[in-house]
Amino acid sequence: MTDDKQKSPISTNPKRVVFCDFDGTITVEETFVGMLKQFAPKKSSQLMPEMYARRLSLRSGVRQLLESIPSECYGEIVEFSKGKLMRPGLVELLDFLDAQRVHFVIVSGGLRVMVEAVMGDLVQRASAIYAVDLDASGPRLQVNSEFEGDDELVSKVRVMGQYRASEQVAIGDSLTDFNMALQASSVFARDRLAEYLDEQQKPYIKWDNFFDVLDNLSHQWN
């Protein structure tokens, strides 16, 4: 993807925008987490429980994990990503959003290269993609993020602030989606994200696949 694809907010100030996580949301598996466990196993076992317990920020923990990986593993990371299964109903949801003229924005706390490797040509259906970029020119991977925040490598709330929409819909599954979910007008949550939102008494809609999201939005908007 080009930098313009990442940086340019929607200029038409749409009424609605859908913000969607990638890992464990578009993908059936936690692809990014699986990659970290494979390429940084020792640090993953140490740092991931701390991040899930919210004792260590995602910004610090994910950076430490990624920057511990040798740059020579970059090609293997791309290969690791290929062929991962996507959750059913995504194409149908995108068709519906196109018909409604509602933008679909992918906001990932993981790697852009993994989003592109998994989604292939389908990535062009997204209005924009915000994710972590890697510099593999040195001995170890270096992290670059346009929207780094206090606690996150990709501040999803900062990304949402680029879009002046009266209705902001969030779709997610885990800790990286927590702040986005608190900010959103309506939330589709599953797995860990649902547990975090229960703790905060933030209302959300349970979902399993994108057909669930499609059915709900179709009912709401029509």
List keywords for this structure.
222 residues, alpha/beta, Rossmann fold, seven-stranded mixed sheet, 11 helices, globular
Q: Label the overall shape.
A: globular
Strand content: 15-25%
Number of helices: 11
User: Roughly how many Å apart are the termini?
Assistant: 33 Å
Secondary-structure content class: alpha/beta
Helical percent range? 40-55%
Extract low-pLDDT stretches: 1-8
Please render the helix and strand layout as text.
Elements: H1 3-7, E1 16-20, H2 31-39, H3 41-52, H4 58-66, H5 74-81, H6 90-100, E2 103-111, H7 112-119, E3 128-135, E4 142-144, H8 156-160, E5 167-172, H9 178-183, E6 186-189, H10 191-200, E7 205-206, H11 210-221
Parallel strand pairs: 1-2, 1-5, 2-3, 5-6, 6-7
Antiparallel strand pairs: 3-4
